[in-house]
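Hi P.,

Sorry for the delay on this. The queue was packed all week, but I finally got your sequence through. Input first:
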Amino acid sequence: MSDVTHWKFSAAVLLAIFVTLSFFAYRESERQKEIAALEAQVYRLSELLSEQRAATRDNVQRKQARTDGERDEDDDAMAEPASDDSDVDDDNDVPYNPKNLPLGWDGKVSSEKPHYWMYLQAV
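Then the structure:
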């Protein structure tokens, strides 16, 4: 092999290596850009949630600083029913069913075939 042919072969190999390295460098720079974009999103979300995080931290510290008596009072207040309204229907009450329609699995008037049921009652 002559020196010129050898040099051309080496130049082609070097060119191929350069192109390959350039491609990987381009891919790496694109990857770096994607990572930078994700980091920017994380920092933005962190800024948006900073007030909520601070309020949560303050609330936890306040609760931890309470005495046992204060904790018991708060637990008792949470356990008591809010109000004793007699207007609220219990689940154990019989539902309003003036036409004696069939009741569904949940105790409410079944709406599957009420017209057919009424026809059977009339016959």
